[in-house]
Amino acid sequence: MPEPLVTVDDLKMHFPIYTGVFRRHTGDVKAVDGVSFSILPGETLGLVGESGCGKSTVGRALLRLYEPTAGRVVIDGDDVVSLPPEALRKKRPTMQMVFQDPQASLNPRMTLARIIGEPLDEHTDWPKAKKLERVYELMDQVGLNRRFANRYPHEFSGGQRQRIGIARALALNPKFIVCDEPIAALDVSIQAQVVNLLEDLQEKFGLTYLFISHDLSMVRHIADRVAVMYLGKIAELSPRDALYARPLHPYAEALLSAVNEPDPVRAQSRKRIILKGDVPSPANPPIGCNFCTRCPKVFDRCRVEKPALREVEPDRFVACHLFDNIVAGPTGAPEASEHNQQGVTQ
User: Fold this and answer.
1) Are strands 6-19 and 24-39 parallel, antiparallel or unpaired?
2) Residue 14 DSSP SS3
3) How far apart are CA 202 and CA 169, in angstroms?
4) Residue whose C-alpha is closest to residue 149's, from 125, 169, 133, 127
5) Residue pLDDT, tens place only, 22-57
6) Which helix (H) or strand (E) holds 222?
7) What pLDDT does 342 receive?
8) CA-CA distances (angstroms) from residue 141 to 111, 117, 135, 146?
C-alpha cells in the first residue's frame, strides 16, 4: 500500500459562542468534533451527510481556510495545521479547492483570463506571455473556448463558471483538491459533465480528491471510498461498493434508503427508513452517541458513552456500539460475538 497523501487525525473545529453585554464565552458550536481519515494518492474520498453535519467545515479546515481548534492534517508530508504563515503560503500550490457556489467564488470585476491567472500572479514570476499561454492551456483542459478569455463571470452559465473554478484550482498543478459540493448549484445534465470532467482530469494528472456532496448517487459514481458524517463526527467509513450494498451504521442505512432507485421492481422491494425527531444542536450534542436521539436501534449504552470509530470488517470503519464486540474469526474474517448478534437483532 502506498503512503497516504492526506492524513487527518482527530480534527476539531469549534466556533465560540459569545453572549451577554460583555460578550462572555459561554460555549462552542462543535462543527467538527474529532474526525480522522486518510486519502491515498490518486484516490477520491466521498464525504456525505445531511446539511449542517460539518462536511464543508472539514474541507475548509483541511486547507486551513479555517484555523482548526485541534488535530493534525498531514498533506504530502507536512502538517498543515502547524505550518507558519510563509511556509503555508509555499504549500498552497499543493492543495486547492473548488467551491460550492461558482457565482460567489468568482470576482465579478475580473475577466476569465485574470481569474484563472491569479494563482500564477501570486506564486510564480513568469512573464506575461507565459502566463497567458498557461491560461489558454487550462481553458483547453476544462473545455472552455479560448475566445472567452476576456469575458466576465456574469456572461457564463453555471456549468461554465464551475469549469472556470476548476481551471483556477488546476493552475499550479496541485496534488490534492477539495471539491466542496461542486455540482450542487447545477442542472442535472450539467452535473454529469462536471463530474466526468473531474474524473478525466484525475486520470490525466493523478489528482487526489476529497469530494464533498449530499448527492449520494453522484458520490457513488465518482468516489472510491465514502465517509458518512453526522453531527460533526464520522459514523461510517467504507469502500464505495460495500457501503452501498450493505451499510453497517444505522444512520448510513437510513441515509442510503433515501437514494432514488431507477429500477421500479427493486424500488418496490426496498424498505424506506424514516428517522424521527430533529438533529441535536452542535452547540449541545448528546452525552453519548450523537445519533442516539434518532437511532431506531438505540439501547442504554448509546445514551451515556460515545462510540469510537473502529475497523469491524476489512477496510470498513464504524462508530457504533452494536459492533463493539466484533472479533476476528478463525479465518481472519470478522465475526460478531453472541452478545453483539443479540444487540443487532434487537
Assistant:
1) antiparallel
2) strand
3) 13
4) 133
5) 899 999 999 999 999 999 999 999 999 988 899 999
6) helix 216-222
7) 40
8) 18, 14, 10, 11
